[in-house]
Design a protein that fits this description.
- The complex is a heterodimer of chains A (59) and B (515).
- With 59 residues, chain A is α+β, with helices and mostly antiparallel strands.
- Chain A contains three helices and two strands.
- The mean pLDDT of chain B is 92.
- Chain B is built from 17 helices and 19 strands.
- Chain B has a six-stranded mixed β-sheet, with helices on both faces. In chain B, strands 16-15-17-18-19 form a five-stranded parallel β-sheet, with helices on both faces.
- Chain B is 37% helix and 20% strand.
- In chain B, helix 7 (199-211) links the parallel strand 9 and strand 10.
- Classes of the chains: A alpha+beta (59), B alpha/beta (515).
- At the A-B interface, helix 1, strand 1, helix 2, strand 2 and helix 3 of A face helix 1, helix 4, strand 4, helix 5 and strand 8 of B.
- Strand 1 of chain A pairs parallel with strand 4 of chain B.
């Protein structure tokens, strides 16, 4: 089926999520039968905003 | 009382996990309050402002865990801090964690057909992660708050360019194709499509639609600022386009605070060419500004119940009557128990939108209420901790959730507030909500029921009759159990409604003509 936008496709497809942050949200999605990959997220560059800004420019 | 703080370097935990741990810490002997946050500059500042002394001198970074205890003695505090590790263990066996996945890119290698990023990292980092998600072709459910309006605009413009969607920021609730994201209720699928610029407003209309015999195709949160003129309804208009095309949606229901003037014109233009009927509910608007009307394909409503009822009708259904045994006799009997000196309603809410709607009910009845999140700026409380006259408090606001659990996850602070309101002999009614659903507390009614009974006893001891009115937001499919939660509240002596509007209207009836 052709979709005009990714949003149209999202509403017509099963949720396949990537979860960053609250782990309960990933558990909750799994409980409902949705597919989810939980990212073991931590603040980038130890949370140092200056280093993050430099990384963002390089990458 | 003393304050003792500690820092655990390079130990990152998510905010909901820390809420649960801080609750357990505060239950330890000799501990009065416990705050646990990641040491972001914003969190450190909020805790320092909240009177946790010595926090700013710890030198915390965003990757460090900050623990601060207010305790009866230094020994009690140090004993808990010494045994912190035992509290920092997660339940095992129920998590989707893949230990080696640390970025969105890595997650995509595990699940290449991913279509959505659910982001609830601290606000300082949320924009960066959302941008990366969009760059990877993912729409975003952005639960994180403290995202600047400039960042919100940039993210939404970038998303729109790619045909992607940003739900949020500070988006509490969505239901995508029957799957609840964040704090959502379990509802049957149906033909009402919801666009929600308010978290608990979305929960209430989806739960009501379910209980009144209808169902939800999708309920898409767009963030509370989406209909401001700063953002211009970017996500709202995208979702309206999508729901207009969606074969499972027959009617579109839009719930928001009143839009900015320019944005209202934009939204109205879009609605005028929508192929489906649209119901709008702009909460907080002056009565008469958006009167209940049917014009062309738009039905304007003034509260969540009327909005849901209209959507059910336009979807071709009929609202199932749940029954209501609050007769005029009951109201008169309750009124007669309340002394002339008991004049005021005090609302202690977990749901911001439900607090907002209740303020609207009181204002429409000529009883404007003070609040920490007021409808009208001149009703802003000088001190959120101190109620005056009619006061409706949003306990989910920043000043209550800094380093402490949100009231939908844990009712400790609400319990304290309920008990303190009961000490005021001018209070006639305590108005509460009880929100069920995914991620919310497993037993919200059980958490507040003892406080309800205690509040009534406190009033009785001084010869007063205190009325406690509670609305339960949820469905029989929610894991907490709608009827059993309502029964707990009734056993504690509360009058229980399954609609926040009806509860607020009943509270008003009890105090009407008191001035």
């Amino acid at each position: 089926m052709e979709f005009e936008t990714e949003i149209d496709k999202l509403l017509a497809s099963p949720v396949a999520a990537i979860n960053l942050g609250v782990e309960d949200f990933a558990d909750n999605l799994e409980t409902q039968g949705a597919r989810v990959v939980h990212v073991n997220w931590t603040p980038p560059a130890g949370g140092d905003p200056e280093i993050i800004a430099i990384l963002d420019k390089i990458l | 009382m003393i304050t003792e703080s500690a820092l655990l370097e390079n130990r990152y935990f998510d905010s909901v996990f820390l809420m649960r741990v801080s609750k357990r810490l505060s239950e330890q002997p000799g501990i009065n309050y416990a705050a646990m946050v990641m040491g972001t500059p914003k969190n450190v500042q909020i805790l320092a402002d909240a009177g946790y002394e010595g926090i700013d001198s710890l030198g915390a970074s965003s990757n460090d865990l900050v623990v601060s205890l207010k305790a009866e003695s230094i020994d009690a505090a140090r004993e808990v801090i010494g045994s912190l590790e035992q509290f920092l263990v997660r339940d095992t066996g129920k998590t989707a964690t893949v230990a080696n996945v640390r970025t969105i890119d890595q997650a995509l290698t595990q699940q290449s057909d991913s279509n959505l990023a659910v982001i609830s990292v601290p606000g300082e980092f949320a924009t960066r992660e959302a941008r990366q998600a969009l760059q990877n072709g993912l729409s975003v459910f952005l639960f994180s708050d403290h995202v600047s309006i400039e960042d919100e605009l940039a993210l939404k413009l970038s998303a729109a360019e790619k045909g992607l969607l940003v739900m949020g920021p500070d988006c509490g609730t969505s239901i995508v194709g029957g799957v609840g994201l964040g704090f959502a209720n379990a509802v049957r699928r149906g033909s009402i499509g919801v666009i929600g610029a308010s978290g608990t407003g979305t929960q209430e209309v989806t739960a009501l639609a379910h209980r009144w015999g209808s169902g939800i195709s999708h309920a898409i949160g767009v963030g509370g600022r989406d209909l401001s003129d700063d953002i211009g309804a970017i996500s709202t208009l995208q979702v309206m386009d999508a729901l207009d095309k969606d074969p499972n949606t027959a009617v579109i229901l839009l719930v928001s605070k009143p839009p900015g003037a320019k944005t209202l014109a934009l939204v109205n233009q879009r609605i005028a060419v929508c192929s489906k009927p649209v119901v709008t509910c702009y909460l907080g608007s002056e009565k008469g500004l958006f009167p209940n009307t049917d014009t062309g394909n738009v039905t304007t409503t003034h509260n969540l119940d009327d909005a849901t009822t209209a959507a059910i009708r336009l979807a071709g259904g009929m609202r199932v009557d749940e029954g209501n045994d609050i007769t005029p006799d009951v109201i008169q009997r309750e009124q007669s128990k309340i002394k002339a000196s008991q004049k005021y309603v005090r609302g202690v809410f977990a749901g911001g939108t439900l607090c907002y709607q209740a303020q609207q009910v009181l204002r429409d009845a000529g009883l404007p209420a003070h609040s920490n999140e007021p409808l009208d700026k001149d009703k802003l409380l000088a001190d959120s901790m101190v109620s005056v006259e009619h006061t409706l408090i949003d306990m989910g606001a920043d000043e209550f959730t800094a380093g402490k659990p949100h009231p939908m996850v844990d009712s400790t602070q609400r319990v304290e507030r309920i008990l303190s309101e009961a000490l005021d002999p001018e209070v006639a009614v305590i108005l509460l909500d009880c929100i069920l659903g995914y991620v919310a507390s497993d037993d919200p009614a059980g958490e507040i029921a003892p406080a309800i009974a205690q509040a009534k006893r406190t009033a009785k001891q001084r010869g007063d009759e205190l009325s406690v009115v509670v609305s339960v937001c949820g469905t029989e499919l929610d894991h907490q159990g709608l009827d059993s939660q309502a029964a707990l509240l009734e056993e504690a002596g509360a009058t229980v409604f399954k609609s926040a509007l009806q509860a607020a209207q009943y509270a008003v009836q009890l105090v009407a003509n008191k001035d």
